[in-house]
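Figure 2 data, in text form.
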Amino acid sequence: MMDIEELIRYHNECVYLDFKLDEYSKEKKAELIKDVMSFANAHHDGDKYIIIGIKKEAGKHIYNSIDAPKDSAGIQQTILHNIEPELDISYTPFHLDGIKYMVLTIKSPQNQPYLAKKTINSENGKAMLIEGDCWVRKGDLKLKATRKDFDRMYLRHLESRYFKGDVEILFTPAQSRRLCLQTIGDIELPSTLTQERIRKIIDKKEALRAKDPKAYEFSNINLAPMFSGRPYEKRSIEELKKILETLREDFFEKDMHHVYEERSHRVNLSITNRGNEYIEDASIQVRIKRSGGLAIADVVYKVRESSSNPMLPYVPRVASYSELNYPSVEVIDDFYVISEDIGDLKHDITQNAFKVPLRLVIENNAVEREIPVECLIRAKNLKEPIKQILIIEVV
């Protein structure tokens, strides 16, 4: 709110200020509505003022003390019934140097454009204000709104809905913009261990077959209970070699489960809306360059156990929460692109970016010691995406 005394003494009429010598009479009802509407539609933020009891002309000040002012409620009702959307106004006295002024304040209008709700005619039937009219204050003039004025108002109205606060993105649970991760170290895949085991069995069987063929044939006979499974030791050399041909493919899920579920880092981000309003319908996209010895699981890998008993009915496995809610991970232009819908981000509340943490591995041959993590948040009420860079440090 501006200093009324300073406005009276030193300011001239402008986009936020007008002076009137007399109050608005009943015959000037349309003029009152036009004046208030034009200020409400002005290209200026903050309160606007019509100060009654003074007129400034050619450097001279003419005063008229308003000792018996009109009822404030009547002025407010006139504005309420004739301008839409609704405006917040006040009509109050102000005393200065023995003169009583009336100050009509249009309080920080935020919902332009403001229009005439109805037509007002003069006593002789002439239309003084037409329903749908829109007037705008420009400098010390009030003018009918043009297409350019409407474009500006609608753009301003649109931009007023955009989120203007700050957003903090951190690694969690460390709550830091930098995250230290170790390399995966020595690792033996289930397929590698099984391959070594089968090769040793083959070597023994080949030695046995060369020494005693009958003993070799007997060693392939499975005496275990039916449907208990047939161990590698009870299979022929030919069967074992055939198993080796597809071993990597057959053990893919077990290998991936070992790497990403048993040996990986679980990485998530926290997002905190530091503004004063919601961020609506938000989503996050994270981009990490593939080079540098970093690998990210595209799904949650689970080992699918199968029964060796063909008499048992097939029961489909129910996917776990982590499998169903793991974020989308794609490879695009040599980048890992991780995406997740977040929904509304409430102010001053911290929430995780991903329902299920990422499975991330740093390989032993990692070249980069610092890996940038580019985070982009998009939302319905963000004019531009929020972009922040976090760092993974390889130790």
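Caption note: DSSP finds ten helices and 23 strands in the chain.
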